[in-house]
Amino acid sequence: MSEFEIPDSMKPQLEDENFTDVIEGTDDGTGHGLGTKVIVFNDNYHTFEQVIGQIRKAIKCSEEVGYYHAYTIHNKGQSDVYKGNIEKCLTVSSILQEINLQTQIVG
Fold it and tell me: Residues 58, 82: contact at Cβ < 8 Å?
């Protein structure tokens, strides 16, 4: 893994155990799948930059949110990066897996 500098703007949030920034989708009208989420696991293979870039591509988030998830994955072994309906979770997971990130859909 390459070393990277955590932006100062993210440091207080990364130290707050209650901070969470899971991107949430919207209900598809059926009420099904609202508890479904995509988890990304640490693999000690991808660089922080690769993980951040692919998360940003998959969930269309800010760079700070991408950093947060990469930091969480690296330090806690996993991060819930998206919560929403099953169809969107499948799409998000598929995009993350384009570079062979290890993902799991739960819910």
Answer: yes
- CB burial class (10 A; 0-12, 13-18, 19+) of residue 104? exposed
Query: Tens digits of per-residue pLDDT, 80-99?
Result: 999 999 999 999 999 999 99
- The pTM of this model reads 0.74
Please state, in angstroms and rounded to a whole number, the distance separating the CA atoms of residues 76 and 62.
21
Is there a domain that residue 99 lies in?
yes
Q: How many domains does the chain have?
A: 1
Range of the domain at 46: 29-106
Strands (DSSP E) along the chain, which ranges? 23-24, 36-41, 78-84, 102-106
Whole-angstrom Cα distance, residue 32 to residue 29?
A: 8
Tell me if 67 sits within 8 A of 10, measured CB to CB. yes
